[in-house]
Specification:
By secondary structure, this protein is an alpha+beta fold. Helices cover about 30% and strands about 35% of the residues. A hairpin with a 7-residue loop joins strand 2 (about 45-55) and strand 3 (about 65-80).
C-alpha cells in the first residue's frame, strides 16, 4: 500500500537526519506523538512529525494542485544547572547551534521524495517554560515542502 505524500516526506526527512554528521549524536525517530520523559530517557531526542497539508485551490488546474506539506522536527535535550542553580548557558548555546545545524541541513537538501523545501523556520528559539521548569530544551524546526499533486 502506498504512503501519503506527507508520510513519505517524514520518512525522507528522518533518513536525512539519521545520515547526517552534526555536532551532537542522535537517532531521529518518526512519530505522531513525541514522548520525551526526562526520568526514563534523558538526553538528546529528535522527533520527526508529519504535521499538515494545505492545498492551494487558487493555483490549481484541472489536473494538478499545489500542496504545502509541513514536517516538524522536534529537538529535546536536558540542560544542567550550575552550583548556583542557574541553567548552564553553554549547554543552551550548544542546543541552539544544533537546531541551526538541523535547519541548514534541510536547506542544503531541499528535495525530499515528491517535495521541494520552500521554507525552513524555527518556531521559537526555545520554549522558556520547558527550560526553566523542567530543565528541558525544546525547539521545533518547521519544514514546508511544495508538492505538485495530480488530481
Amino acid at each position: 500500500m502506498p504512503n501519503a505524500n506527507l508520510v513519505d516526506l517524514a520518512i525522507g526527512a528522518t533518513a536525512i537526519l539519521n545520515a547526517a554528521s552534526l555536532s551532537k549524536s542522535f537517532v531521529a525517530e518518526r512519530t505522531y506523538q513525541p514522548d520525551y520523559n526526562i526520568s526514563t530517557t534523558p538526553g538528546l531526542k529528535v522527533f520527526v512529525v508529519p504535521s499538515k497539508v494545505e492545498v492551494d485551490l487558487q493555483g490549481a488546474t484541472r489536473n494538478e494542485s499545489e500542496e504545502t506539506h509541513t514536517i516538524m522536527v522536534g529537538i529535546y535535550n536536558t540542560i544542567g544547572r550550575d552550583d548556583n542553580g542557574v541553567l548552564v548557558t553553554s549547554e543552551v548555546d550548544a542546543m541552539l547551534y544544533f537546531a541551526q545545524e538541523v535547519e541548514r541541513l534541510f536547506s542544503a537538501n531541499r528535495n525530499v521524495g515528491v517535495g521541494s523545501l520552500i521554507k525552513a523556520t524555527t518556531a521559537s528559539a526555545y520554549d522558556q517554560s520547558h527550560l526553566e521548569q523542567q530543565e528541558v530544551f525544546l525547539t521545533v524546526v518547521v519544514l514546508d515542502y511544495l508538492v505538485y499533486a495530480s488530481r
